[in-house]
């Protein structure tokens, strides 16, 4: 299996530390809000990686964190904790927020047929490991204390910047970081933040009450569950310059050697050629797709048509084409299901495997499946081979395409609830919220109306 390593910028054969098994860490969601379809593209990449490894004979053992504390509004340690902010705005506790959005997240990934990682540890369950990690860094002279927390001193780690290959001065000049005068270098990052008394989530530590930095969470949890050194670490490309640079600094400072053998990053999903953002009202959820008649499998199929290292542009037209092609593919495969022709498919299996093992070339693997499906013979062998390919693709190719569950009805209820809220009929609004909840739907009110997701 050849994989592209962001650190070395080369594609190499994976050499697992324990042959036949690959330890993987994937940066998971910050559970303060619904995950949008761009986030989902990153988790689809993780899923295709795990399925491809398994297909090529390497059993993945994956850990994906759930960040329920410490991820600040700006990745560069500025601003409020995302969970605390969401809790304040929604008048709930951060734990309630985390629980609700974690459930929504699992609902989303299950609906996309993303296999759940072997472990999904929560940051708040691992505060002790994080404190211990920071203590060792302090003992080794990599950390220093200032009035608002403990920071990592990047000047002590000469390899800082090697993943992004960014010149630090340029990075800083372009960054909109609020300068903290007490920091020795603007890129020094928080390992531990001291919490003011009113801060909702805080724990005792050798440096007083506080909470962990976002980056230390991943380093500490990866180490706990995968050991000092492991095979693969994944995330989105946005993690390269700050989050993963910082993880590398922390873990290598602690171990005196690299912790990760292969760094892999999934490219972004764009919408209409640009960034997804709340202000443009285009950070769609799976439920927004469902409202227009697209199922999670249509979205998965759409994503399967682009390589994970290429940007992918989302448009409704492209979704429509994906929907049509997906149904067509399933229809063609059905036509083979009871076919009695004999066909030699070894060549197709070999090219499919080659595509998958060439740094996860899922689009090519899919095109090989199309070629096989379009053979003139009608053959159960073709159907069976397609089902084997689907162990990697995860497109549920043997199932009738499902239509989304009663979305019209759900939308009508949401609309009725909006109207009730407008008329200050809060009793009815709450009743509808509970009714939806009993059907496995969680709602979030935004200035542009309610959004929702299915819960598992
Ligand atoms: P977050 O919950 O914000 O930490 O992000 C979860 C994951 O989604 C991370 O791996 C991000 O890199 C990834 N991500 C965020 N936006 C996009 C996007 N537009 N396309 C693909 N992945 C994204
Ligand atoms: Zn991470």
Spatial strand arrangement across the major sheet: 4-3-11-12
Poorly predicted runs: none
Q: Biggest sheet, in brief?
A: 4 strands, parallel
Helix content: 40-55%
SS field, number of helical segments:
15
- Heteromolecules bound: adenosine monophosphate, zinc ion
Instruction: Count the beta strands.
Output: 16
Mean pLDDT: 91
Broad structural category = alpha/beta
Report Rg.
Answer: 24 Å
Can you lay out the helices and strands and say which pair or pack?
Elements (H helix, E strand, L loop, with lengths): L1 E4 L4 E4 L7 E6 L10 H19 L3 E6 L7 E3 L3 E4 H9 L3 H18 L15 H13 L3 E4 L2 E4 L15 H7 L14 E6 L15 E3 L1 H13 L3 E7 L3 H16 L4 E7 L2 E3 L14 H6 L4 H9 L7 E3 L1 H21 L9 H12 L4 H12 L6 H14 L13 H16 L3 H13 L2 E6 L2 E6 L2
Parallel strand pairs: 3-4, 3-11, 11-12, 13-14
Antiparallel strand pairs: 1-2, 5-6, 7-8, 8-9, 9-10, 15-16
Helix pairs in contact: 2-3, 4-6, 6-7, 9-10, 11-12, 12-13, 14-15
The protein binds adenosine monophosphate and zinc ion.
Can you walk through the features of this model?
- This protein has 456 residues and is α/β, with parallel strands linked by helices.
- The chain has 15 helices and 16 strands.
- The strands form 6 sheets. The chain has a 4-stranded parallel beta sheet with strand order 4-3-11-12, sandwiched between helices. It has a 4-stranded antiparallel beta sheet with strand order 7-8-9-10. Strands 1-2 form a two-stranded antiparallel sheet.
- Helix 7 links the parallel strand 11 and strand 12.
- Helix 2 packs across helix 3 and helix 14 runs antiparallel to helix 15.
- The relative contact order is 0.13.
- The site of adenosine monophosphate (AMP) has 14 residues, from helix 1 and strand 11.
